[in-house]
Amino acid sequence: MSAAVTASPVTHAPPLLPPAEPTEGARIAEFVRAASFEATRPSEAEVAAFAAVAAPATPVYVSAVPSRPPAEQIAVAKRLHAHGFEPVPHVAARNFDSAIALDDYLARLAEEAGVRRLLVIGGDRDTPAGGFHQAIEVIESGLPQSRGIREIGIAGYPEGHPRIAAAEIDRLLAAKIEAAAATGLGVHIVTQFAFAPEPILAYVARLRERGIEQPVRIGIAGPASVATLMRFAAICGVATSARALARNAGLVKHLFGASAPDAILRALAGAQLGEILPHFFTFGGLGATARWAAAVAGGHIALDRAGGFRVEPP
After folding, report:
1. How far apart are CA 60 and CA 57, in angstroms?
2. What pTM value is reported for the model?
3. d(Cα 242, Cα 236) in Å, to the nearest integer?
């Protein structure tokens, strides 16, 4: 006769609770941790100041200046690469007088600065230096791909372009995305900066409605004086939100008399618009912008009732 088996009492694990939603401050910090930066001719001291606070491999876009030689831009890319960052140079089609010159430039970027991504633009020259007139011609040339470039950025304009009609901008954007896909290049969009969240949100929403799902790096003016921001706004043709900045200049000074993009970041961090990431234009300096962004990414912020936040000491 076998011994009776006493059944053990059945225990039930407590139900798993859904993970807590991150707080708004945590969402803002997480959003800013994915930021890229843009600079023109940062000095060694500026790059060192950036390196003191920025995460390794942070993308830094290097502007192309029509009046400056390409070798200068290559030197900046090399400096950034040596400090462990990812240089993403602007390639302005109209700046190159031949395909040979463009190929030599791309070869040096790849070999000397480890460049694998570019921002391809038409450029600001009224008269092209050679046969390249538009960004799409660089994409279709196959030269970036032959030098190991795996992804390109394409410019986007939330407030339109001062010299190109909106319908033509839409057509060119779609054509560049199609050309990149046909030649094996990944694509992301980098927008011009704005001083208010509304045109940015409307622009990205319109992209998504058109079936354009590529990542979008949102141009954001980093902390700088209001006078500096107004000057760059005039140069870059962002008149609509520049007027908004001028109307509210007395309300947006947070950091040593500078205007900070807190309201824009707060609005974007909560947006459900696919993959969007912040892209800081560093008009106040690469190091200063990075220090401010690092404080935000570290969660050292206090939300305010005006829809923004202030940065607090750690």
Report:
1. 9
2. 0.86
3. 10
